[in-house]
Each structure stands twice: as C-alpha cells, then as structure tokens.
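Quick one, tokens below:
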C-alpha cells in the first residue's frame, strides 16, 4: 500500500512514513494510491466479529506490512479493550429504521478516541523501532485535543502541543486538555478561532526548516492514520445492520470533514453505503457547497456545537482530489484560489458526481435545542448538540426509508451540560472516573495568534524536555 499527496508534488510514501509525516511536504494530504476492496464474502464474514477483530481486518491492508500483523493485532485489541462498553460502539434504535451509534465510549468521551487511542500506540511503536522522537502539533475545536493528549501523554518519544481557540471550547473540553499533569503535554490557548489555530499548525508544517528541526508530526485528521481508523466503525455499523445484503446510510455531524470522509473511504473500499449526510451548524460552509458548488468562506459564529465552528474544512481536500479525478495540480490551484479570494467553485458535473452519494443540511442553535428536547421526550436518550445536528440531518435527508439510517453520536452529553440542561432540564453527569474534573488543577499557556510566538514556545519547550 502506497500513499500519494492530494497536491501531487510530494514523495509517494508507505504507511509508516505517512503516519509520522502527517502533512505532505507539498502541503497536501495523503490518500491511498489505490483503495483496497472488501468483497461481499469478507464483509459477510465480519458480521459476528467483535469490534477489535473487524478493526484489524479493515486496517491491515492500509498498513501494508509496515507494522507486523502480530503487533498490529495486539495494538488493536489493547485499544478497544479500554473502552467503556462491551460493544465498543453500541447501536441504539431511535426510530423504525433509525439508529444512533455511540462513539463516545472512549477515555475522553468523544469519537476522536476511536482513532487516536490506536494512532498513539502506532506512533510509539514505529518511533521505538526507529529510535526517533517527534514533536506533535495539532489544532482542536474541542475534542481532538483531549483525545490526542490522552493518547500521547507520558510517551517517552513524543512531545505534544495542542492549540485551542481561547474561550471557544466547552469547559469540559478545556479541562480535559488542561488538567493533564504530564511533562510531554502542552495545551495552548490561542487568541482567535479554530481556523486561526489550524492555520498556525499548517504554517509550522510549511516552514521546512522548523519542521525538520523539530521533527514535526500531526495527529489531526490531516493525518491519514486518523481517517483510516475511523473507517472501521462504518463497517461495524453496516455489517451489524445487514450489509452487504443491504445498503446502509449515515448522518455525520462534521466541521473539518474528516469523520464523513472516512465514510466516503469505506464506500470506496466496497461498503454498500446508500447515502452520506453532512450535518452542519450555522457555520455552514459545507452545506452551502453541496447546495451550490461554491466554497465560500464566512466569519465563524460561536454556537452550541463548538467542535463544528469551522469555515476551512481541511479534509475536504481529500474529497476534492477525488472530484478532480486525482489531479494534484488542479487541487493545488483550487486551494490556492480559495486561500486568495475566499471563494471558489466546482463545475456542475463534478458537483453532481459528489451529490450522488453526499447530501447536507444545517441547523441553528434553536433547532439544536429543539432536537435535543424531542429525542429525550420520545426516546429517553440525551444527545449532545453535535449529535443532535446529526439526527436532524438524518431526518432532513432521509431518502429511502427501507435503508437503515445511522447517526454518528460523536460526543457524550456531559461534555456540553449547559446546552443539554437548557433543552431538557436534565443535567447530564460525567462518568464516575471523571467526576473530579473540575477539582483538578489546570495547566496551560495563552499565546497570541502569531506563528513566530508559537514556534518559539514549541522550540523552547522541546529543548527543555530533551
């Protein structure tokens, strides 16, 4: 298995090199040169397997032998043994043919754990084999940061720096990042938006001298390993609901497009997915694109669903690469035009091709509260605001009612207690193991939205820890 950059000018790499590189040298994102194919017989054989056994089957071809099968299988088993439900990602029925997949059973109560708990182990394994050390830098709109920190804390060969927008993540999300007392962990509040944090991270990667000097790597969903591990739960949901004998649809609340692109990847690998539905909040750049074919940047508006308060969806570039028939130069020109003018379009034919599989909807804060209340009143389930947007997206773009519709529930409701209580009157409780979260001491630094200041901080911190 080899990987190519979406911008066509970086070296073709094997999986272990892609894992450590994160972002390609030309600024693009890595994607498989060819998609592995899961036959109907292979999918049928997975129906009765555990989550971990399906994960090993799905991930193995993407790794391409760069990690020994026995080591990979052990890492996968260890990863999901630590989750809080025996099914790992349980399915709950909320309608006649409508389902929630609970992706918040991991250590930080968000879907990011499904990938990052495994990716952290992969990093440690590959680095130990090579005798190397890396500096991980990442940006978070809420959940990636805590999941990445939890995956990398106390690892001897990793320093991790997570940038989050000051005052724009929930108190639970912030404290999950800032109360980790590990010498290799650095949480940084940036005076700006998530997009500003993301631009700072990309700027550090694009500074070739700094990147090489610090041996930078990434655990954001720009890292292919993240997307790869997320393909698994699409396969798990589908085979548990009857695939490959019948198709399944998915509704995905998303801001950075990584989670839904994993569904696209699953479909490319042969999973019978009928529709992928993108759910957005008021920061609706993805909804507007799938409606009009124009990607047009706007201001970022704080909402009840802060992990989706994004206007530059990094992983969209991977879909664009497919839409433009794998033409890296065309992708590079498209991204450059978007960065320059803030608006760029695709032609009707290419838009129509994407719409054959992907639909989109949007929901404002009032609608989010309404859906949280309705689902609680009709099913007894408490939803966080992001998952509520996913449920509404499933309703708005339901399609064939004979096809099971799975909404990805991406975060535990206790991560957003104020929004849930305002909608239902119920204050969702954190699990017992996190009940003292607000009694723990915080440790973080606040920096300006200035790349030189952030780079200087990273440089000094790494030197102090070496």
């Amino acid at each position: 298995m080899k990987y190519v950059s979406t911008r066509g000018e970086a070296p073709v790499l094997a999986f272990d090199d892609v894992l450590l590189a994160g972002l390609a040298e030309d600024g693009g994102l890595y994607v498989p040169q060819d998609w592995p194919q899961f036959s109907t017989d292979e999918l049928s054989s997975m129906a009765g397997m555990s989550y971990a056994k399906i994960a090993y089957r799905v991930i193995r071809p993407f790794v391409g032998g760069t990690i020994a099968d026995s080591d990979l299988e052990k890492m996968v088993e260890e990863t999901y043994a630590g989750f809080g439900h025996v099914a790992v990602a349980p399915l709950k029925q909320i309608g006649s043919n409508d389902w929630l997949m609970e992706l918040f059973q991991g250590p930080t109560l968000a879907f990011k754990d499904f990938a990052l708990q495994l990716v952290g182990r992969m990093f440690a394994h590959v680095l130990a084999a090579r005798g190397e050390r890396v500096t991980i830098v990442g940006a978070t709109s809420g959940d990636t940061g805590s999941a990445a920190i939890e995956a990398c804390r106390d690892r001897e060969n990793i320093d991790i720096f997570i940038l989050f927008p000051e005052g724009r993540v929930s108190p639970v999300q912030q404290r999950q990042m800032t109360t980790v007392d590990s010498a290799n962990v650095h949480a940084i509040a940036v005076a700006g938006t998530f997009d500003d944090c993301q631009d700072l991270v990309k700027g550090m990667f694009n500074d070739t001298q700094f990147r090489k000097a610090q041996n930078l790597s990434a655990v954001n969903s720009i890292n292919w390993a993240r997307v790869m591990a997320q393909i698994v739960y699409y396969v798990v949901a589908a085979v548990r609901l009857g695939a490959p004998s019948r198709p399944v649809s998915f509704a995905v609340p998303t801001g950075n497009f990584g989670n839904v692109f994993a569904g696209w990847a699953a479909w490319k690998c042969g999973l019978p997915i009928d529709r992928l539905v993108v759910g957005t909040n008021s920061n609706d750049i993805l909804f507007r694109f799938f409606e009009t074919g124009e990607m047009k940047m706007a201001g970022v508006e704080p909402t009840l669903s802060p992990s989706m308060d994004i206007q530059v969806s990094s992983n969209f570039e991977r879909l664009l690469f497919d839409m433009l028939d794998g033409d890296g130069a065309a992708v590079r020109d498209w991204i450059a035009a978007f960065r320059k003018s803030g608006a760029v379009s695709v032609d009707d034919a290419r838009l129509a091709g994407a719409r054959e599989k992907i639909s989109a909807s949007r929901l404002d804060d009032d609608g989010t509260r309404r859906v949280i209340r309705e689902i609680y009143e009709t099913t007894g389930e408490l939803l966080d605001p992001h998952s509520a947007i996913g449920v509404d997206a499933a309703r708005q773009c339901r399609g064939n009612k004979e096809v099971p519709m799975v909404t990805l529930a991406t975060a535990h409701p206790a991560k957003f207690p104020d929004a849930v209580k305002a909608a239902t009157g119920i204050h969702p409780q954190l699990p017992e193991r996190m009940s003292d979260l607000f009694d723990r001491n915080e440790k973080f630094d606040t920096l300006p939205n200035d790349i030189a200041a952030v780079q200087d901080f990273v440089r000094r911190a790494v030197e102090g820890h070496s």
